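REVIEWER CHECKLIST
Item 1: Sequence provided? yes
Item 2: Single chain? yes
Item 3: Sequence as submitted:
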Amino acid sequence: MKLRFMTYNIQHGINYHRQKELERRGGIWQEPVDLALMAEEIRRQKADIVGLNEIFGGGPSPEYTGQAEQLAAILGCHCYFASALRLGGNPYGNAILSRFPILEAKTIGIPDPPVRDEDAYYETRCVLRARFAEGFTVLISHFGLAKAEARNAVETVLSLLREEKGPVVLMGDFNLEPDSPILAPLFEELTDTAALFPCPLKSWPSDEPEQKIDYIFVKNAQALEADIPPVEASDHRPHTALIEL
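Item 4: Structure as written out by the authors:
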């Protein structure tokens, strides 16, 4: 079967252009969250399965409703939210949207480094694993900014890959460019769909992209097409790939 996959860091739904406009006016007085805009861009890409980074789950305050569930309701699809930590008391992490029912979904924590020995922002992360009745598995993650966090993320992903016998799609914002030695084990184990780009493409920041830090990898599957379309709704551009499973 051929399915279109999409990975998208939506920065919890912040409208990137409105955010920049508010900053130009002297500061953000409120977060310009626009989930309808994110849903519109997801729909435009015609993706069958979408991995989302930087997304909130429902929290103790009435204004913090589950963003994955809201997007799924707008798009008419299934969803699962994987909480990595709590920010401001509200769960925060990754999510999956799917046209197909999810057979099994699980949140796997990425171990925090025992020592914070780098001048970097540290944040607890996780991997979302979703299995489907059609026989394939999707892994979604958002790697940490500190090198020790990223190494732990790679080790966690590799351990999960060893459990899978069928087709696997790994996607997310890994906060590292392709030449990073930290990502080398993933390139050895998996196929990067970006090899199909007709020319080098970047994903961040969305208005004037300078870095490629968003990925779709496959194992035991074949990538047929891949793209980073010029979408500027979030601070990241989405990455898409047509994959034969």
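Item 5: Key structural point noted by reviewer: The chain has five helices and twelve strands.
Item 6: Recommendation: ____
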